[in-house]
Amino acid sequence: MPDGRGVHYGSGMKIGLIADTHMPGSIERLWPQVTEAFAGVDAILHAGDLHTLDVVDELCALAPTYVAMGNGDVGIVDARLQETWLLEFLGVKIGMIHHFPSPARKSAEVIAQRVDRHFDEKPDIVIFGHTHFEGIYQLDDLLCINPGSPTLPRNQSLRMGTIGHIDISDSEISVVIHQITEQGLAPHGEIEHMKISR
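Above: the chain sequence. Below: its structure as tokens.
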């Protein structure tokens, strides 16, 4: 299982979350607010639908980047893209997949079946995309996160959307979804910051 044991992260880690960039069909380059927000993170997880490797190269200049292949990424061959990932950061197992049932619409049983089907080990967190609808969902001991889309939020027209961060410490996992604004990042108006004790 890939992890960060080869890199020193001090007492904690910060992971950037992004999905459904759809570039260059949306914009040529990421909003500068996104690259500023991801400067200094320890890793970036992109939950798919890139359409071009340019955005991966841009993100890799900031931090190691892992991408779940989306339905719009067919034909892109690159080691940074996999159908699914199971990564471990400071003992927290994070699975990532592009197309995954939303806990807002499917039962915990359906979610558990999909996890069993796609991951060899049960993750603590699943990152997914595809719907462009951001959300944080706690299902028993599984945390599901969709960071939404920074470019085409909620499957609407081109505008500033959302990204996320996970902070992992020895005692806590903290997850936040941000709204991108002209000034930078703002708290999401509907999704509260989630903190989970370890």
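Residues 118 and 173 are 23 Å apart (CA to CA).
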